[in-house]
Write a structure and sequence with these properties.
This protein is mainly alpha-helical. Helix content is 48%, strand content 7%.
């Protein structure tokens, strides 16, 4: 065959047509194999087919059960009413207290405590945190933080020191997750009292808060700012110390010549924590001559906190 330009163009045309036929045959064969594999229940392709189809479907929003509360004369079915009930149940606002006696002038006290956080403080707090206890919704778990402690130490200490110097608690640190759980062995879960919750805090916030609590404890112990009968959250003051003090006081009353009747008042401080007036709390800190940077950081810590409720899944 004579080599001409026309013959070369014909060759390219028929060669391209042949390649298209081969590609189409291979594609059809591949589709047939995938179809056969996707219909086999034990095949991985069956799962891949299910994922591809399910991912295109609209997700159904989960619906929480209807609720009733003492504040409603009917069963709450709407989203707004159920939200109001849950908000009062889990996020009760601080009580309205009389603050007319609070003065704006305070006595400043210079204490020998450095406001700059130290790396040893941070390492100690991170190592004390229990593994897999905080929520992983913040993308940083306790376990990961402890494993990366060597590399993250310098970064975290700079971040924490900026928060302390500016007396500001980061907005990202104020977010929490509240897991709502059903109390067991209840016949009816329409009552809001049949639920209890677990609050999962940001691990970064917990570490910074622990450091500040330790510093506040050091100040109170050094300057004798607590009563000798105060037992909770104090070093070397355990429950057995409180019981011994109580027994000694009872015996002292019994040994008196005049017979007295003994009464004991027990206060559930933990239950009242959510109802504490923030203005009153900050006022007490100032009157106790607490360092200014701790008072202002505490005010920022208490302000504009938020949490998301999670039910079942």
């Amino acid at each position: 065959m004579q080599s001409t330009l026309e013959a070369w163009n014909d060759y390219l045309k028929y060669n391209d047509h042949k390649n298209k036929i081969i590609k189409e045959a291979k594609r059809s064969h591949f589709k047939l194999q995938i179809h056969e594999l996707s219909n086999e229940l034990k095949s991985i392709w069956c799962f891949a087919k299910w994922v591809r189809i399910e991912s295109q479907l609209l997700k159904k929003l989960s619906q929480f059960l209807s609720l009733k509360s003492n504040d409603f004369d009917h069963i709450a079915d709407s989203f707004e009413e159920k939200t109001e009930i849950l908000q009062k149940k889990f996020f009760s606002s601080s009580s309205q207290t009389n603050i007319s006696d609070i003065s704006k002038s305070f006595i400043s006290l210079t204490m020998s405590f450095n406001s700059v956080l130290l790396q040893d403080e941070m390492r100690q707090m991170i190592q004390r945190v229990k593994v897999d206890k905080a929520s992983e919704a913040f993308k940083i778990s306790n376990k990961m933080l402890q494993a990366s402690l060597t590399k993250l130490t310098s970064i975290l200490i700079r971040l924490f020191n900026v928060c302390v110097i500016h007396k500001y608690h980061l907005k990202q640190f104020k977010k929490a997750q509240t897991i709502v759980l059903c109390k067991s062995k209840k016949s009816d879960y329409i009552d809001s009292k049949t639920y209890w919750f677990i609050a999962l805090l940001n691990i970064m916030s917990k570490i910074l808060k622990s450091i500040m609590i330790k510093r506040l404890n050091d100040i109170t112990e050094t300057h004798h700012m607590l009563s000798n009968t105060q037992m909770r959250v104090r070093r070397k003051w355990f429950m057995i110390s409180a019981l011994n003090l109580l027994v000694d006081q009872v015996h002292a009353v019994w040994d008196c010549e005049i017979k007295y009747m003994i009464f004991m008042l027990s206060l559930d401080i933990a239950e009242m924590f959510n109802h504490v007036s923030h203005i009153r709390l900050l006022h007490i800190l100032r009157m106790r001559r607490t360092l200014n940077y701790i008072v202002k950081w505490t005010r920022s810590f208490l302000k504009d906190r938020e949490s998301s409720l999670m039910f079942n899944e």
